[in-house]
Amino acid sequence: MFLLFGWGCLVWQPIGLTYGRRGMLLLSLLGTVAINCWSANAKSNGTWIATRLLIGFFGSPVESLAEVVIADVVCTSHKQC
């Protein structure tokens, strides 16, 4: 999961910066919720590992885009950038 938190940033961050961060964060949230519902019903070790990998991939925008959003808010509100 943590490995894909890092590698997923290589996919999600360019898409988020090009098409909009809000959409990527919402897609990440919906994907993570759906996969967590699936992992609650995991009956085998392979299924549980697959859910962890997918959560790592879909959860990576939270790790990479949050810093960009905070920088946008600070620069917009204080006009320092």
Can you describe this structure in just a few lines?
With 81 residues, the chain is mainly alpha-helical. The chain is built from four helices and no strands.
What is the 3D shape? elongated
Contiguous uncertain segments of 5+ residues:
none
Question: Taking all residues together, what is the mean pLDDT?
Answer: 87
The main sheet comes to:
none
Question: Helix tally?
Answer: 4
Give me the Rg, rounded: 15 Å
Count of folded domains = 1
User: What structural category do the secondary elements indicate?
Assistant: mainly alpha
* N-to-C order of helices and strands: HHHH
Number of strands: 0
Q: Tell me the distance between the termini.
A: 35 Å
Fraction of helical residues: over 70%
Strand fraction equals under 5%
Break the fold down into its secondary structure elements and pairings:
Elements: H1 2-19, H2 21-39, H3 45-58, H4 60-78
Helix pairs in contact: 1-2, 1-3, 1-4, 2-3, 2-4
Key structural traits:
86% helix; mainly alpha; elongated; 4 helices; 81 residues
Write structural notes for this entry.
The protein has 81 residues and is mainly α. It has one domain (2-78). It contains four helices and no strands. The protein has helices at residues 2-19, 21-39, 45-58, 60-78. Helix 1 (2-19) packs antiparallel against helix 2 (21-39). The longest helix is centred in the middle third of the chain and has 19 residues, at 21-39.
